[in-house]
Amino acid sequence: MPSANRHDLFAAARPLRAAAATDGPPADLTAKALEIHRRLCPVYGCPIPYFHSLDPLSELVSSLLSHRTRNADSGRAFKALRARFPDWADLLAAPVEAIEETIRGVTWPELKAPRIQAVLRAVEARHGGLSLDFLGEMTVDAARAWLEAIPGIGPKTSAAVLSFSVLRMAALPVDSHHHRVAQRLGLIGPKMDVGPSHPILRSQLPADWSAQDLYDNHEILMLHGQQVCHHRKPACCRCVLVDLCPSAQVAYREP
């Protein structure tokens, strides 16, 4: 996006600030969500290739490892787990200390090691085996409900399992970057947590969108949060969404 001075950006934002004050109907947010998607897709190269081709149970373990952990670190931990425990049944039979040692590069390995074992035991007890392939025969809502009935699995993890795994189901994960960008853009409220934001953000997108469409939406908002809409000092001057963003309007407001 060409650079612009603060007065130009502030002027461009005025009509949207006035519109936001009228508390428009949900259709306004749907139109805004679609416009955000339309603008970000060419920036980040939709359709975006999937970064994983794991079976859904392996994706579940990978997602549990990734919580509050950099992708590179959780990826190394997952590979180490698979090398040490080629079958998930081997991991269930292992001392929890061995699992913790194997994943020591992630955040809170002392919590994640017993949690992974507990989740795998729950899957085995409820399904009768260590597989989640059967989820592909269910609707997205039913599959997510099945997963989220297991302690330790929340909306982000259930959506990740369905979307990122080889099931390629139409679920929308929301990570911390995605969540932050959605809040700044006014798609969700400033006090809404990540978990409750999942159904809200999904409802703003077309019901018939494919798995690839929803994966792209998650990825472009996540990438925008990583590369432009930083936690501290967002780069509003090079953001293609600045005229849609209430937070940018505040940032460029005259003192």
Automatic annotation (TrEMBL):
The organism that produces this protein has a lineage beginning with: Bacteria, Pseudomonadati, Pseudomonadota, Alphaproteobacteria, Hyphomicrobiales
- The answer to whether UniProt assigns keyword Signal to this entry is no
Give the record's keywords alphabetically.
DNA damage, DNA repair, Glycosidase, Hydrolase, Iron, Iron-sulfur, Lyase, Metal-binding
UniProt-listed SMART domains? ENDO3c
What is the scientific name of the source organism? Methylobacterium cerastii
**Family the UniProt entry places it in:** Belongs to the Nth/MutY family.
Source domain of life: Bacteria
Name listed for the protein in its UniProt record: Ultraviolet N-glycosylase/AP lyase
Task: Look up keyword DNA repair and say if it applies.
Answer: yes
Q: What PANTHER family does the entry give? A: HYPOTHETICAL BASE EXCISION DNA REPAIR PROTEIN (EUROFUNG) (PTHR47203:SF1), PTHR47203
Name one matching Pfam family. Answer: HhH-GPD
Q: Where is the signal peptide?
A: none
An example of a GO molecular function for this protein is: lyase activity
Necessary cofactors: [4Fe-4S] cluster
Designated gene of the protein: pdg
Where would I find the HhH-GPD domain in this sequence? 65-227
